[in-house]
Amino acid sequence: MKYLIGIDVGTSATKTVLFDELGTVIASASREYPLYQPQNGWAEQNPEDWRNAVLATVSEVVEKSAAEKEDILGIGISGQMHGLVMLDEKGEVIRPSIIWCDQRTGAEVEEMLNLMPRERWIAITANPPLTGWTAAKILWVRRHEPENYARCKHILLPKDYIRYILTGVFATEVSDASGMQLLDVPGRCWSQEVLDALSIDRDLLGTVYESCQVTGSLLPEIASKTGLSTKTIVVGGAGDNAAAAVGTGIVRDGTAFTTIGTSGVVFAHTSKVSIDPKGRVHTCCCAVPGAWHIMGVTQGAGLSLKWFKDEFCQDYLARAEKEGCDVYDLINADVSEIPAGSNRLIYLPYLMGERTPHLDPDCRGVFFGLSAIHTKKHLLRAVMEGVSYSLCDCNEILKEMGVEVTQMMACGGGGKSPVWRQMLATLYHCPVKTVKQDEGPALGVAILAGVGCGLYPDIETACDRILSEKSHTEPAKELMAVYDAYHQLYQKLYRSLKEDYKALALL
Predict the structure, then answer these.
(1) Please, what is the Cα angle at 265 between 472 and 445, to 5 degrees?
(2) Exactly one of 160, 240, 276, 393 is catalytic; which is it?
(3) Of 201, 252, 340, 429, which is the most exposed, with the fewest CB atoms less than 10 Å away?
(4) pTM, whole model, 2 decimals?
(5) Which of 178, 173, 161 is CA-nearest to residue 54?
(6) For 129-175, what is each residue's pLDDT tens digit?
(7) Quick one: 170 exposed, middle or buried, by C-beta within 10 A (0-12, 13-18, 19+)?
(8) Quick check: is 240 catalytic?
(9) DSSP state of 94
(10) DSSP symbol at 180
């Protein structure tokens, strides 16, 4: 039996999983680390924390297993996107990494728009300049910490820093690089036009690979520390969502997944590059060579239900503790008793502003239509429906761009809810499925490693061989017209409130 390792460098923790060639989990380990917020709106982490977590978890899974080191053929790395890691000429970290959720770069985004029109940014990088993406962070360091910028010899993304630690190679791959705002996304290479506009030296950036290409093999000292072989290869890997797509089988046209975590994502595979000229959704290179993905994001997905549960559902929490069950199972059972539409109650899930389709930081949450007939059960169902309407907005933009989804996978915590899956299937007008394998990004990059070392002929074949269906939810055809009508009113509410949100923000 041959084995593969998938490493997922997340925001709260790193998770490392050892799989056999059939995709079975042999051993897993995780390590948490802190996030630092030196000022309001800032978010940083120490890359050395990621390094220590990776080396510890890789060593642990190897030690837990009975696998011979020569049989562990490859490693794939996934990670949080957009983070800025700066190294000096000795390969040492210069400053903490400014990570994906940092919002300090508003002035730099304006600078980027002054240097090049928004339309040109979208044409090259497939996205308008964004505060959370890497390019604006590079400009921020250059402006505010010129001494650090002068020392910088290498710019890497979080997972690519781990690649450097493991292999000594400075490299990235197309899916993660797409989120830097420096990549020619249609051409799958660095954009010299963008680099010239921003006055960024091309030599600071690593070589760009496809996700399943071999980028190097383990350094002798790393092999010795982890119990692995110097013959173990490391492939390009993928950004977290692109890795999750492979780990759930979203590798062909017509397939997509919906994640309901803290935020919500609708992610569709496409073999033809398609860019939204309005910049409402993100287009990036995906982990399948020669293909792309389109991704819409709703900020307050699972966050909305968690917020309502934490603030207003102490009775549910007490009952769950008493009965020894999951509080969300109790919520799902009660929500299923309420009819579609929550008796004319609509929730707008804008607790944290919104990204898709509005890109509006000022909009906020709303319950519309409250009356004396409504109970806590109605409000809970309205929250779940409001999140579903928001995710449906993302899916409708995909259709507008010519991406027709015929099969949707559900993942994330919210994807475990049969009630939520039923809402999504009915609004999407297509089946919503789950897979038995739930390791997501870690499995995805392990599959990429398997392709890179020749264990599988290609990504699609590997997914067919490894992944299997767990659940299948068909649309409730009798409710399609009901939900379509509510969704149209939901969309109208944002348009009606748009100027009021701005006024509220100024109070």
Answers:
(1) 80
(2) 240
(3) 201
(4) 0.90
(5) 161
(6) 998 899 999 999 999 999 999 999 999 999 999 999 999 999 999 99
(7) buried
(8) yes
(9) -
(10) G
